[in-house]
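Hey, quick one: can you model this chain's 3D structure?
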Amino acid sequence: MAVPSLSLRFARVMGEGRWFAGGPRWALAVDKEARLLDHAPWLGGVPGSERLSLDAVQLLAPVSPSKILGVGTNYRAHAVEMGKPLPDEPLLFMKPPSSVIGPGQAIVRPRGWERVDFEGELGVVIGSVPGQPCRRVSVSDAMQHVFGYTVVNDMTVRDLQKKDGQFTRAKGFDTFCPTGPMIVTGIDPADLRITTHVLRNGTVEPRQDSRTSDLIFDIAAIIACASRVMTLLPGDLISTGTPAGVGPVQPGDEVRIEIEHIGLLTNPVVDEE
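Sure thing. Here's the predicted structure for all 273 residues.
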């Protein structure tokens, strides 16, 4: 699948100097350069004269959402893996914004639980359509509300999920939503390869290898379903579900999730202090 020539890459960065006196900045990434924006890109931010080397800044999570929506059991092979029937409609849940971390930041594995799993997922960032809030949108109109795509790791305490029978605590811990490294626009999300590897004791172990064409509910269907319940605001993040191959992580591991044309998200796992 060729990358469209109009595809753009956006980052959220932090660095030293007067450009960051007010905190992190949004940037358009061009080659190895970060062109700082005056606003978030989904709000029409444009680059000014400030240009920095990407090597000179820290990449943060490229999102700052008011809310994060996840979708459970949304890959056919994963439903089989978990012994669940295919759902009739998207199974929606929420993660708190406080769970977001960026590339390279540590996932904190909470103590006292038997199994904490990675879940590599395609992330969708909601954009802004003038005069058309993302509320009760149709499937046919849903994709115009998409700004771009990123990589998400929907970390989950599996035994807590089973204990509670729902997802809030199991998926809501701080650091449980690694996201990045950038947001990519102008790509077709229908058939992207998604892989997850875990680096453990010096060995890179393949865990997930699938394509977004295995999604049960595509992005338009998810947005249409969610927007019947709540207004999706510009910058909100939807994590679209995970393929087969989920598995546990331990302190000392490193989780590497890569999605075709979007990038590689890497995060170490540490023990809770």
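One thing worth noting: The two ends are 44 Å apart (CA to CA).
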